[in-house]
Amino acid sequence: MRLAYEMEYKHPANEKPDIEMTPYIEEYQNEYKTLYNKCFHEMREALDIRPYDYIQDDSYFDSGMDVVYMFVEEGVLIGAVSLEDNEVNNIFVNPLYQGFGYGRKILLWALENIQTEWVIIHVSAWNEKAVNLYRSAGFEITKTIIVDQDEFGRKEYSKDLNMINEMVKNWLDERGFGDRITEHTETIDTVEHAAMQIGCTEAEIAKTLSFTVEEKPVIIVMAGDGRVNSSKFKAQFHTKPSMIPRDKVEELTGFLPGGVCPFGVPEGIPIWLDVSMKRFDYIHPAGGNEFVSVKLTPDELEKASGAIGWCDVCKGWEDDCEKVVR
Question: Which end of the chain is less packed: N or C, by CB atoms within 10 Å?
């Protein structure tokens, strides 16, 4: 999943810029094109935004350059930035001059000269160096978003993951479990990843699966080492197990694949808990996206989720039980 952060300027830095930048200078067009593509190629490739070298020809410069500012010293283009409405965008530094603090200097100049008090910036989630720079200058992460692209290869920020977090947090707060939420820096989109991030066994991960029963969604939460048993499932629901297709999960459950959880699901979707989880003191379901987990006892999960009740539809976990299922 291609992720980026939207960061908001909330804590103005005491530092003042010690450089002067000038509006876009046409004679540096070739240098700008070369440096832009070189500096953003890795980011675009990591996010799979094509073309990886965005500036393909000189038609790029036909419009929109009035928001571009350059830092030129002794005839060398050292870096540039765009000030687009309330967004600081497209900061880059000539690779020959990286590591000398020019990125921070350009950022401080941009913050001093942008014509708005509410300032945002977007940055790839993998680019820790840039994220740390922006934080040190007074920015905070306000959104975690999935990055898609339109037919022209331009970035589109399609989903605010933090909005889901807030909804789940409110749901759990109202039921007295808001303090059980943990946010992770790495994805917990699989049982293996979740166990690594949380520091528990894979079996203690409460995986939430969504099925179609009589053409309606049903959610079942089970232990991480459990596998659906067709016979047991049919005995419980009077039909063979049929999982909701991945591309339909969000539409039907309100959550993205990897983040489906039993908290705050759309009204009318029944939630069942499998007995495979009862052997543990604590279990860890997802909390609305692939970076959030919730630590609960089995009884607390029943209360927090509003589940219909307990079912027995899994196999593969009984031999490793450490507790007798009651």
Answer: C
Burial environment of residue 28 by CB neighbours within 10 A (0 to 12, 13 to 18, 19 or more): middle
Element holding 221 (H helix, E strand): strand 216-223
Q: How much is the pLDDT for 324?
A: 42
Does residue 92 contact residue 36 with C-beta atoms inside 8 Å? yes
Mean pLDDT of 56-63: 94
Whether residue 138 is predicted with pLDDT greater than 70 in this model: the reply is yes
| Phi, psi for residue 30 in degrees, rounded to 5 | -65, -40
Burial 283-316 (b: 16+ CB within 10 A, else e): bbbbbbbbbbbbbbbbebbbebbebeeebebbee
> What values do phi and psi take at 205, rounded to 5?
-80, 130
Sheet holding 205-213, edge to edge: 284-285, 205-213, 216-223, 271-274, 309-311
Predicted TM-score (pTM) of this structure = 0.57
Domains belonging to the chain, first-starting first, are 3-153 (3.40.630.30), 173-320 (3.90.960.10)
